[in-house]
Structure formats: C-alpha cells, structure tokens
Amino acid sequence: xxxxxxxxxxxxxxxxxxxxxxxxxxxxxxxxxxxxxxxxxxxxxxxxxxxxxxxxxxxxxxxxxxxxxxxxxxxxxxxxxxxxxxxxxxxxxxxxxxxxxxxxxxxxxxxxxxxxxxxxxxxxxxxxxxxxxxxxxxxxxxxxxxxxxxxxxxxxxxxxxxxxxxxxxxxxxxxxxxxxxxxxxxxxxxxxxxxxxxxxxxxxxxxxxxxxxxxxxxxxxxxxxxxxxxxxxxxxxxxxxxxxxxxxxxxxxxxxxxxxxxxxxxxxxxxxxxxxxxxxxxxxxxxxxxxxxxxxxxxxxxxxxxxxxxxxxxxxxxxxxxxxxxxx
Length: 328
Ligand SMILES: Nc1ncnc2c1ncn2[C@@H]1O[C@H](COP(=O)(O)OP(=O)(O)OP(=O)(O)O)[C@@H](O)[C@H]1O
Ligand SMILES: [Mg+2]
Known about the structure:
By secondary structure, the chain is of the alpha/beta class. The chain has 14 helices and 11 strands. It has a 5-stranded parallel sheet. It has a two-stranded antiparallel ribbon with strand order 3-4. It has a two-stranded antiparallel ribbon with strand order 6-7. Helix 1 crosses helix 2 (38-48) and helix 8 crosses helix 10. Magnesium ion (MG) is lined by residues 38-39, 103.
C-alpha cells in the first residue's frame, strides 16, 4: 500500500494529523487540489485505525446519477423494482465496520445532499423497498477539490451537511507549496517506474530537477508521477536531463516558458499567491544583482549583504547560472 511520502514541514504535519485522526473515530473532511493525495490520506487514516481489518469503500459521488443514489448507498430489497430479483447490499453495507470514502462530495446534487444528511443524522438507512431501518457503523471520510465553505457561501452546498462532514478537517497542501518534496517524490517515482518496468535505474539530472522545482504543478503529485514515467521512457541513458524532461512534457521546453501560475490569479489562495510573489521577487532581484556583479558570486554576496553560501543556494534554486553575466 502506498504511503504518503515527503519531508516538507507541511507534509510532516499532515502525517502527524493522519495518525491523530486514525485514533479518533469520527467524520473527516479532506480538502485539497486535484492530485494532492486526498484518497491516499483517507486510506492512511483507515489503515492506521482500529477499522483496518474491515473494508475501505471509495464512492465517487459525482458518478452516481440522482435517481440511483439511494439504491447505490443503501442497496435494495428483493422486489424493490420489477427487475430486482434478489436483495442487493448498498455501499454502506459493504463498508460495515470499515470506512466509507465519499470522494468529490461537493458534486452531490440537492437530492444527494439531503439523502446523505438524513443518513448522517442518526446513521440509519432503509434499503430501497424495505420497511425496516438499519444502522450503519461505517466511518465517513469525505473529500473535495473545492472549498466546501465557499460552496456553502455560494449556495451550492448545504451548510448543515458541511457541519456534519467537517468534524475533523484536513487540508492537503498543493505541491508548489512543498518545494522540499519535489526532488524526493521525483526520485521516488522514477525508481518506482524502473521497478514496475523491470528497467534500469535512472536519476534526474540537476537541470531537470531545477526545472521540476520551478514548475507550478497544477496536477500536483499525480502530475509528477505521470511526468516521471514519461521522462523515464524518453531517456536513453541513466540520467534524465532537461532535454528528456522537455521531450516528455512540452511545458518544460524553454526554461522561461514554465506554466507558473501568476500571483494575481484570483483562485490562488493567499499563501500560494504570497509564495509566488516572493519567488518572482527573488528571481528578479538575483538576476539584477548578478548583472551588477558581472557574474561574480562573492562580489554579489558583498553587494547584497548576504552570505556567499546562502546566495549560491538561492541561485541554484532559481536556476540562475553565473556564465551569462560574465564579461566576454
Ligand atoms: N505524498 C505522496 N507520496 C507518494 N505518493 C503520493 C503522495 N501524494 C499523492 N501520491 C500519489 O499521487 C496519486 C494521486 O493521489 P490521490 O489519488 O490520493 O489524489 P487526490 O487528491 O485524491 O486526487 P483527485 O482530486 O484528482 O482525485 C496517487 O497515485 C497517490 O498514490
Ligand atoms: Mg481522488
């Protein structure tokens, strides 16, 4: 079973939270952009909890048509419909003793939301065509790419249901807020590809790593996983350099053409927008500084009042070399 890897402070905090939530048997709401690891987090909570020997049942709320929601969740009794030959358990029955993972919970229709709310009020449900109520002991973990709070304010999600789901809350940070994890995950995924394909081990070149670090990762960890696979396939030798990366993913062709999100994008959260503004400032400052110092790092360190080592690290982070600034 995959584990949530990462050494950034943010992901360490998430892992600690997962462990705490595993020991606390109530609903959890997980929010995070696509590919940040919401399902992985839900599985980790389940498998670290006392429910680990019972099923983990994922449900994609967006994929259930309105007319079938009760049937899917609660199941049906024999003779519920003309063609219902036998009783069929619902997803809630399958999750007995375990965890029901409601993915994309924000996509539930009004009817779906009412159905779920009614169930969560007393954990009782009635299979379609059955008079007798049953009680479920499944733990509910819900996940969404959207902010449920914002959906509530916009009138698209019931406030009472939001409260019910949000007993414990977990936010998965986007990958662009976890610089410390990019190289680690990139190395892990390339290693995993080699094992999966029984191919030779490969490593990322320094130029490719810099480019990965500068990228905005709109598809987060899943996107990195996919790019690692493609870059592995595109490289002949043991090193995956920027050229192979660019061949695998055109977004990396031309270091200046990174699809970094602009800090002014309204859907970017405050901390992400701040992080981007800081990065842009650092990049512009360092470029100007290196121009003034004619590519001499020691001189640049003196001019800017920073330590040489610290400056070297910053230059590396932004992929700024000294060569273009040296006098010809
Ligand atoms: N920290 C991590 N360490 C290792 N693998 C990870 C990590 N985070 C995510 N992954 C992997 O990335 C992929 C996407 O994760 P997951 O499906 O949990 O994301 P998600 O948030 O549910 O995405 P979506 O919103 O698109 O459904 C999975 O293959 C998962 O195993
Ligand atoms: Mg998911």
